Amino acid sequence: MGPQPPNSRVNSSQTSLDTLHSEPASAERTSFSSRTWKYLNAPVRPCGFVELQLLVTTFCTGLQDAVSFPDFHCFASNQTGNTVFLMLAIALPEMNGEWFLTSNIGMALGMFIAGALITGQLGHIIGRQRRLWLIFCNLIQTAMVFATAGIQYVHGIDLEGPKTPVCIALLAFAAGSQVVQSRSLEMTEITTAMATAAWLDLIIDRRILAVENRSRNRRAAFLASLVLGSLAGAYMFKNVGSPAAIAVSGAGKLLVTVMFFFSPAEEEKKKTEKEGELV
């Protein structure tokens, strides 16, 4: 074979250079995708930042329950009250419509259990603390809350009617899913919904007056968030209406969803501990 034409040698050299330049860029893209996927699938570590997220969620719960009871005569999150009312409805059916509505209570309790069941059982399979799972669940919950606010803004609020069970179902399912996630994050002091056990555990705490008591502080912060959320919900119910309160609750849950992108992971904790041992 004869010598290659000059243009052929130039093109060959250019191709080699392009290949050399493209390989690092491709590797960098792959590395970034791999790191992102690993980060999203890492388990979230229970810490102060996650405590803040759960307290914001608790405030949102207070907002919702403060308006759901006067609107629908049932609670979206507080299933202790719904259970008692449901038993009253069975024992004293003549009181239906006066103090409570059996259909609304049944819908709230049933959908709360459904949300908890689905989120809890899938969480065992997927990974209860996996960041991507937490983000996905919170995003679904947020969408349900905003959907409720939208229905109320457009169609108004009725104690009974075709849209009422839809609103109750959305809020209660989201609440059930939310409570399961709070337990998954291993902070049982911050349930985001049920206050009875928190009040009891707070006042019987053997170290209630200790300077450093993380469990007591969590319970006190949880109860304060729930009280403030309920007061804010009552104020909004009276002055601007339930849809606004539900929308603010949805905005709070959206904030918590975004915060899960930045929550510390278990791997970061292990890395820090390993670096400390080396030092």
UniProtKB/TrEMBL annotation:
Keywords on record: Membrane, Transmembrane, Transmembrane helix
Source organism, top-level taxon: Eukaryota
InterPro entries found in the cross-reference section: DUF1275 (IPR010699)
Bias kind Polar residues: ranges: 7-19
Residue stretches spanning the membrane: 99-120, 132-154, 243-262
Stretch list, region Disordered: 1-27
Pfam families per the UniProt record, alphabetical: DUF1275 (PF06912)
Name of the protein this chain belongs to: DUF1275 domain-containing protein
Gene source species: Rhypophila decipiens
